Amino acid sequence: MAMVMAESIVGLVVILMLVLIILFILLACRPWRFFFSSPQHRQIKVGDLERPLISDDIGSVQSQVNDLPTNQLLEVLHPQAEENISSPRTQGLACKQKLPSTDEHSNQGANLVLDVISDPSEDVPVGHTIKRTLVAKCPVEERKHVKRERTNNQLPFIAENDSPQEPGLTGIEAQRSSLSLEVISGPSCGLRCSLLSTNTAKLPVTLGRVSPSDLLVKDSEVSGKHALINWNTNKLKWELVDMGSLNGTLLNSQAVQHPDSGSRHKSEPFELASGDIITLGTTSKVSVEISPLVECQIPFGVGIASDSMALRRGGRKLPMEDVCYYQWPLPGVEQFGLFGICDGHGGAEASKAASKILPEMVANILSVSEKRQKVLSLCDASDVLRDAFCQTEASMNHQYEGCTATVLLVWAHGPEDFFAQCANVGDSACFVSIGGKQIKMTEDHRITNKSERIRLNETGEPLRDGETRLCGMNLARMLGDKFLKEQDLRFTSEPYISQVVHIEKASKAFALLASDGLWDVISIKKAMQLVFQMRDNYSADGDNFAEKVANFILDEARSLRTKDNTSIIFVDFATTSTSRTDSCKSCS
């Protein structure tokens, strides 16, 4: 009897388990969804699909949308439409970009255009561009960069009969333009690229995630070949073209795309202007600076290169706080030119301010005839450089930001002879090579440096043994940092002034200025060897030889894994170049 009851219980348990398994399968598969259609979706008729989505008559578009009942209109919109975000996977419907309304008091529904799209779900392989919904918003920080408003809030489509030209430029001057691009947000923030419209060998400028893009943006939402910028010789304008990117391109928050938005083809060209913001994907923003070119004969070659670098291989780029610049000639002072590097700490604002103010102060002082003649007669600009640093420090009001400053003042004494003198605060260094002999033009103002420790000890508050920082700073001389200078009088902006060096063109002399990111991994001797190596491998007669040298040294610092912003200026006194810029060039 007991055995029969046990068998009955086991059988009952088995039956219950089977019932539970069947219920679980039914709940997981939900077969009833094939027999009942959801009443929440509005049915779309075949005629609706054949009807054009955008009519030539704007009024008809508004009437078509206004005819929809409010509840039906809300049903076809994604719940996130209030946030201007539409999901391409929601019921096969997407809310496209709003058309500009002809009446500011018109109904909000009149601005909605519905599109039927097909976007099957698929897995994204590793290394491919990650697709993101393109949001046409204009954040506050982006508006700050836009310097020119576009009429009617529309992109300037280039028509065939257009013939734009920069005001005040005629003839050959209008055919030359300088384009500068800087990534201002995203993983590659700080990356810069500059190009001249006359350098046709390097056109067009390509923007993308993979080599050989000219602006290599390491962002997973940027396509391998995302966009390009070219110079239109007929219209004399720079133009932006989207290459059919996955996540799209925005120009001042307006979409740049092929007329058939569902296809991945090249867009039409759109005109660029100085101050524009290009958004690649959703996170990487690129600022555009365009300036006319004025041809200027420079009696020596100049090359500039910089990189913000990263703390580890493949890691995120460091914030760029270096600014390097040069002006030849200085405004109103034909015989003089200035080369400089400012390395910021606590932010980039102090270095940007110093790089603008310092050349102005030098030019203002030299514009006084008596002071200029004194420099030329005595072959010494010590007073000019010292006064310029003093006035720059007085003009800066940066309490918690500061920067190093290294400047090389060069003046001509005939077509073949030059004089050069350097001044610096901080640890950005400069040296000059004349006839193969190296001359250091700067002094290291790190607290660990022997000469700087001697100066600090002479102030009456000597450093303790082993003390390598002052109020957390490893430098005792800088521009800015007013708060630190108020707390500790041992901080100063008094520059070191070098001796004047005489340079003849026949001596094959050159000068190299660089921020501490270079000198942390490369010695002066090694830097000289790199320059001589380039001279052996390449002809020094080329117009861009100095630029090649600067980039070659920068590549060497990058390969040696420097972990700080690195900026380089290379001046080749043995060559002559024609500058097609506005006599002033900066890189940050």
TrEMBL record:
It comes from the Eukaryota. Coiled coil: none annotated. It is an enzyme of class 3 (hydrolase). The keyword Transport does not apply. PROSITE patterns: FHA_DOMAIN, PPM_1, PPM_2. Residues 205-256 form the FHA domain. CDD domains: FHA_PP2C70-like, PP2Cc. Residues 301-573 form the PPM-type phosphatase domain. Keywords: Hydrolase, Magnesium, Manganese, Metal-binding, Protein phosphatase. Its EC number is 3.1.3.16. SUPFAM superfamilies: PP2C-like, SMAD/FHA domain. One of its GO terms (molecular function) is protein serine/threonine phosphatase activity. InterPro entries: FHA_dom (IPR000253), PP2C (IPR015655), PP2C_BS (IPR000222), PPM-type-like_dom_sf (IPR036457), PPM-type_phosphatase-like_dom (IPR001932), SMAD_FHA_dom_sf (IPR008984). Its cofactor is Mg(2+); Mn(2+). This is protein-serine/threonine phosphatase. It comes from Nelumbo nucifera (Sacred lotus).
